[in-house]
Amino acid sequence: MAGTNEVAAKLASEYNITITSAKELTVAVLDTVVELAKTERVQVGKHIFKPYTRAARPGRNPKTGEALTIAEKHGVKYRWTGDKVKAEKVAPAPEKKKSKKK
Fold first, then answer.
1. Which residue has the higher pLDDT, 19 or 88?
2. pLDDT for position 88
3. Do 27 and 19 form a contact (C-beta atoms < 8 A)?
């Protein structure tokens, strides 16, 4: 898995900029996408970022066994749509003919 440094190095070599500038740009773009995706769906090419909310739920303190409520959680989900095939573009499978047994 590539990290920020690898992405910055690739950007620096492709666009003839310094690695430091490329790293700052990479972090800024990703932070902006995640910040926007916390409130609305964001699509960048084949990449989709969308907000989600996990409802508050009951839980227990594992040490004391005391019942408590786990707070609501907000986050961002990521999905890549590059491998999806549109249903309209796929031809239906031909039907098999039933053979008659004598």
1. 19
2. 45
3. no
What fold does the segment set 4-84 form as a domain?
HU Protein; Chain A (4.10.520)
69-83: pLDDT as tens digits: 999 999 999 998 876
Is there a contact between 41 and 47 (Cβ–Cβ < 8 Å)? no
Q: Of 53, 28, 50, which Cα lies nearest the Cα of 37?
A: 50
User: For residue 17, how many other CB atoms are within 10 A of its CB?
Assistant: 14
Token duo for residue 41: 């769906």
The three-state secondary structure class of 37 is helix
Domain locations along the chain = 4-84
Is the backbone of residue 16 left (phi > 0), alpha (psi -120 to 50) or beta? left
The phi and psi torsions of 80 (rounded to 5 degrees) equal -105, 130
With beta carbons less than 8 A apart as the criterion, state whether 46 and 85 touch: no
Residue 89's CB: how many other CB atoms inside 10 A? 6
